[in-house]
From TrEMBL:
CDD domains: REC_OmpR_PmrA-like, trans_reg_C. Residues 2-127 form the Response regulatory domain. Residues 135-229 form the OmpR/PhoB-type domain. Residues 135-229 bind DNA. This is Two-component system OmpR family response regulator/two-component system response regulator QseB. Signal peptide: none annotated. The modification 4-aspartylphosphate is found at residue 51. The lineage of its organism: Bacteria, Pseudomonadati, Pseudomonadota, Betaproteobacteria, Burkholderiales. PANTHER family: REGULATOR OF RPOS, TRANSCRIPTIONAL REGULATORY PROTEIN QSEB.
Length: 239
């Protein structure tokens, strides 16, 4: 999961980024609206955490711009992030402020100061709704992944995964049976400036197959990777 944190207070931004990275998110930071808009146009994100009082304007303006279908500029199409979950995090604690934020297109609203664990629980709930799930755990055959506990069970037995392995498995399970390209997976797992080897995704896939079985993750040659809903390989070119 890749998160964009838009927050102008360095202490809050860096602390939040550290806690999210520890929870397995790839995190990018922006300190103003201009940076956030450039980031949204350049990279895919799964969720945005948005402060309202920013140096160059109100975060609600960015949210309104994001939710407008016409923000695809010349094409007239919405940005890929048009429906991306957005969590407002702000010191504005009035009822009218919360109503305004939610009615402007935010999916949730949390008032500063907040507990990092509560914020992460809200993020998990938002992402769960966005993927059409109600169950807090993800089940696939005899595989059970718990995003909150950061655990994976295979046939009832715990499987130890590294942070990037867990993030990759979560991304593929949430997208199933969609095929995700290598570049999309890299974007989901690595933020701006993170060291990335050219074969990083292949290495993570190899480790997951070794730990969870060769049949779990399929390869579509020249396209990417996917996990089929029925745990069966589909096209002939997939293996």
């Amino acid at each position: 999961m890749r998160a964009l944190v838009v927050e102008d207070d360095p202490g809050i931004a860096n602390g939040l980024a550290a806690s999210l990275r520890q929870a397995g998110y790839a995190v990018d930071l922006c300190h103003d609206l201009a940076c956030a808009w450039r980031a949204l146009q350049a990279e895919p994100f799964d969720v945005m955490l948005l402060d309202l009082g920013l140096p160059d304007g109100d975060g609600l303006d960015l949210l309104a711009r994001l939710r407008q279908p016409s923000t695809g500029a010349r094409s007239g199409r919405a940005l890929p992030h048009h429906d991306m979950p957005v969590l407002i995090m702000t010191a504005r604690d009035g009822v009218s402020d919360r109503i305004s934020g939610l009615d402007s297109g935010a999916d949730d609203y949390i008032v500063k100061p907040f507990d990092a664990n509560e914020l992460q629980a809200r993020l998990r709930a938002m992402l769960r709704r966005a993927s059409g799930r109600s169950n807090p755990v993800i089940e696939h055959g005899d595989l059970v992944l718990d995003p909150a506990a950061h655990t994976v069970l295979r046939a009832g037995e715990p499987v130890a995964l590294g942070g990037k392995e867990f993030a990759l498995l979560l991304t593929l399970l949430q997208a199933r049976p969609q095929v995700l390209s290598k570049s999309r997976l890299e974007s989901a797992l690595y933020g701006f400036g993170e060291a990335l080897e050219s074969n990083a995704i292949e290495v993570h896939v190899h480790h997951l197959r070794r730990k969870l079985g060769e049949a779990l993750i399929k390869t579509v040659r020249g396209v990417g990777y996917f996990i089929p809903r029925d745990d069966q390989a589909s096209p002939e070119r997939a293996r």
